[in-house]
Design goal:
With 339 residues, the protein is an alpha/beta fold. It has a domain of 229 residues: Rossmann fold (3-Layer(aba) Sandwich), CATH 3.40.50.150. Helix content is 40%, strand content 19%. It contains twelve helices and eleven strands. The strands form two sheets. It has a seven-stranded mixed β-sheet with strand order 6-5-4-7-8-11-10, sandwiched between helices. It has a four-stranded antiparallel β-sheet with strand order 1-2-3-9, with no helix packed on it. α2 runs antiparallel to α4 and α5 crosses α6. The chain is globular, with a radius of gyration of 19 Å. It starts with 11 loop residues before the first helix and ends in a 6-residue tail after the last strand.
Length: 339
């Protein structure tokens, strides 16, 4: 199984503009707290959604939601889980959704979103080239059409947006791009590539989303996915103070849990990488912001007494061991039946 290590640096303030990100976090927390008033409509987990183990223990609470820890694959999942109607309200009509569609937020994050779309488009084009007889690309839950526009510019198509979210509009000037309000409205085996970039972590039914992606793919087609990983260094170190929050991060699956989940659904896993660049920066920032955070003595010594070159090399080590909390996955629809 291949993996990617990124040699370089990324400033957290560039990846997450502080004012825009702080406001988004507040809006997401407010939305999650409003939903707790309807907790009677929610369901609680009794087993790990990734590997199915019943060794599922309480880990920590965040803003009224309990996170469970799987004793087998080490994934983290929030419980209770929203109903389908609650999930749609959060994604499209909540204070978090309204904040994302605000012109000021769009303006403050536009450069980062354009850079991210270019990186994703180059990766998609590289993978699509492995399947010469292309039947198109489906992007699950885009919040904008930057990626699809990039793919259109590279000559890929047909292109489809499945269940676009705010601030996306339901129409787009590029005629090659279509949209469907629900992923189930797209015919089976209609794509060679399905992308799920930064959407897995908020799925109410992550296995259901992966199964739908499998249905959309022709035999041998590719699933490309990015998400936060619960086995990542910053999350494992900060734990209850980790930079995660419901309902945005309800699935924090580990590297091991992701592989098992995909194989159970009918994928062959070609790559699981954790090419993240921010774990150590996040730990440093949270340790400064939150008085009660106590990071391990050795790590505190390292961060205070070693230079940026040493920090970069440690971050590269975390990547090489699949220990960053930013995960990217490439999987191929298997010829064998799902488990």
């Amino acid at each position: 199984m291949r993996q990617v290590v990124v040699h370089g640096t990324l400033d957290e303030f560039d990846a997450r503009p502080p004012m825009a990100f702080r406001g988004l976090v507040e809006a997401c927390i407010s939305s999650a707290e409003q939903l707790l008033a309807q907790s009677g409509e929610m369901t609680r987990l009794t087993s790990c959604p990734a590997c199915g183990s019943d060794r599922f223990e309480e880990a920590f609470a965040k803003h009224g939601y309990q996170y469970g820890h799987c004793g087998q694959c080490w994934s983290l999942f929030a419980s209770p889980r929203l109903s389908a109607d609650q999930q749609q309200w959060y994604l499209k009509d909540s204070p978090a959704a309204e904040y994302r569609r605000a012109p000021k937020y769009i303006e403050e994050t536009s450069l980062r979103m354009d850079d991210l779309a270019l990186y994703q488009a180059n990766w998609v084009a590289e993978v699509a080239a492995l399947e010469p007889d292309s039947r198109g690309v489906v992007q699950i839950e885009p919040r904008g059409f930057q990626l699809l526009k990039q793919l259109h510019g590279q000559g890929l198509g047909p292109l489809m947006a499945a269940n676009p979210l705010p601030p996306s509009r339901t129409t787009c000037p590029i005629s090659a791009i279509g949209s469907s309000t629900v992923i189930g409205g797209i015919p089976s085996q209609s794509a060679s590539v399905v992308t799920a970039f930064d959407v897995f972590e908020h799925q109410n039914d992550p296995a259901g989303m992966l199964a739908e992606a499998n249905r959309l793919l022709r035999p041998g087609g590719f699933l490309m996915l990015t998400t936060r990983s619960g086995s990542g260094f910053d999350i494992q170190t900060l734990w209850e103070h980790a930079d995660v929050f419901p309902i945005e991060h309800v699935n924090l699956v580990s590297v091991e849990g992701m592989r098992e989940m995909l194989e159970q659904i009918g994928f062959d896993v070609l790559e699981i990488s954790t090419p993240g660049l921010l774990d150590l920066q996040i730990i440093q920032r949270v340790a400064k912001e939150v008085e009660e955070v106590r990071i391990p003595r050795f790590l505190r010594y390292f961060l205070e007494h070693r230079d940026i070159g040493s920090t970069d090399r440690l971050q590269e080590f975390l990547q090489s061991q699949r220990l960053s909390s930013h995960m990217r996955v490439l999987a191929r629809k298997s010829d064998r039946p799902a488990n």
